[in-house]
Amino acid sequence: MALTIYGDRISGNCLKVKWTAEKLGIPYVWRETNVLDGETRTTGFLALNPAGQVPIVILEDGRALAQSNAIMVHLAEGSALIPADSYERAKMYEWLFWEQYSHEPYVAVARFQMAYLGKPRHELDAKLFERGGAALQRLEDGLEETAFLVGDRISLADVALVAYTRVAHEGGFSLTDYPRVVAWIARVEAELGIA
């Protein structure tokens, strides 16, 4: 029995789970779950995840697991995507926590509002762009000395952060001021086999 991933292909949070499974060669069944059509609010879906969010995975033993970064960590346990060195592993977690608190709420939210809800930039809170820009600068600074966010090899930190960074332009962010980020996106996409 394969892993089942409930996800929406417009969601970077869902795609990063998919990419992790693919990078690790974990077989899965994808169940497209359209957020815009309210599929995460149905009785059947809420029975799987009372929070009404994707992604959620149903493990081979039938247990459910939600929250993209928790799912990725579970899937990658014991793999090279989680650094063996305790300090580097902690740095990976630092980036994962930061991604959900200081990157995704701005870059991803601006993208969703503009690309999927059709709102023009001037109707959105200016703080989305201020804080999203600060997040992109933090990535730029974090890549000053290394090819990836935690050293010279890909980790879950890169998978998590590339998901929305690579489509930041859809949320009104220009990456031209972040050349290290642009080069890093290309490296991570190559490692994951995505384009």
UniProtKB/TrEMBL annotation:
Origin, by domain of life? Bacteria
User: Which molecular function term from Gene Ontology is one that the record holds?
Assistant: transferase activity
Alphabetically list the UniProt keywords: Transferase
Q: Where is the GST C-terminal domain?
A: 85-195
Q: PROSITE patterns annotated for this entry?
A: GST_CTER, GST_NTER
Q: Which residues form the GST N-terminal domain?
A: 1-83
Question: What is the name of this protein?
Answer: Glutathione S-transferase
Source species of the chain: Caulobacter mirabilis
